[in-house]
Specification:
By secondary structure, the protein is an alpha+beta fold. Helices cover 31% and strands 33% of the residues. The protein has helices spanning 18-26, 65-73, 101-119, and strands spanning 3-8, 30-32, 37-39, 44-50, 53-58, 81-87, 93-100.
């Protein structure tokens, strides 16, 4: 089941809508309008901007690192909402967990440190 990250942007966030698509393009990904896929040749993910939101979904494997780089580049992190879930086989979102972006980034950093400890 693919993982899904939904991002609720603050009104003042500059990286949403067309600016978000341009940011991904500037960072090596091409947006396929007909499939909502972001592709860079090796990696892809689904990107559905919807006004003050964007839904990001795994496509071929795990999320590429560019997703987490994007989240670290947002200009209004304290007011950005992150929802995490899985897409069920029938296309519905299961087990949504919501948190503000700073909390999500802390979890990412903590998980990253845990993985580094495991490799030693």
């Amino acid at each position: 089941m693919p993982e899904v990250i939904a991002v609720g942007f603050d009104d003042d966030e500059t990286l949403k809508g067309d600016a978000l698509i341009s940011w991904f393009n500037d960072n090596g990904f091409h947006f396929e309008d007909d499939t909502d896929r972001m592709v860079n040749g090796e990696q892809s993910f689904i990107c559905c901007p919807m006004g003050p939101y964007v839904m990001l979904k795994e496509d071929m494997g795990a999320f590429p690192e560019i997703i987490f780089h994007l989240l670290r580049c947002l200009s209004c992190p304290k007011t950005t909402l992150i929802s995490l879930s899985h897409e069920s086989d029938d296309g519905f979102m299961d087990d949504a967990t919501e948190m503000m972006l700073p909390q999500f980034l802390k979890v990412l950093d903590d998980d990253s440190n845990w993985q580094d400890d495991e490799e030693e």
